[in-house]
Amino acid sequence: MRRIDAIGITLGIFLAGGLIYLGLQLFGLNGQDAGIWSQVMLVVGLVGWLATYLFRAGTKNMTYHQQREEYEQAFFEKRLNELTPEELAKLQAEMESDD
Which conformational region is residue 18 in: left (phi greater than 0), alpha (psi within -120 to 50 degrees), or beta? Predict the structure, then answer.
């Protein structure tokens, strides 16, 4: 994530909090109650986002891990394709002897 993306997300969340506050005031809540409920909604949203992040990090279902696995797979496929038939047979024999 780039720095400008993080700034944009932060501003978006800040504006969302303000819009929630104004919306609650339009529905008849006083300023203090609207402020409390808008904070509650933002905290619940933050905790929900954190839960999804921790789940993705725990299951390694994140962009970095996926890109790394794809790179490693492509690297090993390229190396395997570069092997001569003799080297491939030798490698297969080594793998069978290790079992």
Answer: alpha
Contacts of 39 (CB under 8 A, 6+ apart): 17
Provide the CA 54 distance to its chain's centre, in angstroms: 9
The position carrying tokens 């303000």 is 18
Residue 6 half-sphere exposure, CB side, CA atoms within 13 Å?
A: 3
Summarised one tens digit per residue, pLDDT across range 38-80 is 999 999 998 999 999 899 888 887 888 888 889 999 999 998 8
pTM over 0.85: no
Phi-psi region of 50 (alpha: psi -120 to 50; beta: other; left: phi over 0): alpha
